[in-house]
Q: What sequence folds into this?
C-alpha cells in the first residue's frame, strides 16, 4: 500500500505511529494510528466464513449517515459513514471465505463531510485490495 493511499486520510503532522490495539488473534487483527501522538485512525481486519453485509441493519449501528460504496474493484459490498467505513470482500483462502476491513477515524473540523467520505472510500477500496493480496485471496 502506497503513501498516495494513506496520506489523504491522515492530518498533517510530524510523526505517525502505529500501535497494535490488541495481541493479534487470527482471524482478527487491529491497530491504532496516531499522528503527533494523537489518536486518529482505528483499523481492523477479520477473516470469516459468513458474509457480513455492511449495509444491513445489523451492521448499521456504528454508522452515521451510511451510504453504499459503489464500484468496488472486487466482489463484495462496502459502506461509508461520516467517520467510518466497512468492506466485506469475497476471499476464498485457506482460512476464510470473506475478508472484513473496518476503520474509524477522527473528524477534522476544517474538512467537509463529502470530501472526507470520498477519501475514506478510496482508502477502503485500496486498503481492502492490499489486505486481499496479503492473505492470498483467490476471488
A:
Amino acid at each position: 500500500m502506497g503513501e498516495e493511499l494513506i496520506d489523504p486520510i491522515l492530518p498533517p503532522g510530524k510523526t505517525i505511529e502505529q500501535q497494535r490495539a490488541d495481541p493479534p488473534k487470527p482471524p482478527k487483527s487491529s491497530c491504532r494510528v496516531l499522528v503527533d501522538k494523537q489518536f486518529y485512525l482505528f483499523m481492523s481486519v477479520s477473516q470469516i466464513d459468513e458474509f457480513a453485509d455492511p449495509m444491513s441493519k445489523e451492521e448499521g449501528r456504528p454508522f452515521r449517515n451510511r451510504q453504499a460504496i459503489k464500484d468496488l474493484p472486487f466482489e463484495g459490498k462496502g459502506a461509508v459513514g461520516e467517520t467510518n467505513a466497512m468492506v466485506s470482500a469475497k476471499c476464498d483462502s485457506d482460512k476464510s471465505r470473506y475478508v472484513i476491513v473496518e476503520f474509524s477515524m477522527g473528524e477534522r473540523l476544517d474538512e467537509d463531510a463529502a470530501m472526507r467520505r470520498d477519501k475514506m472510500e478510496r482508502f477502503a477500496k485500496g486498503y481492502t485490495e492490499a489486505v486481499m493480496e496479503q492473505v492470498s485471496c483467490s476471488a
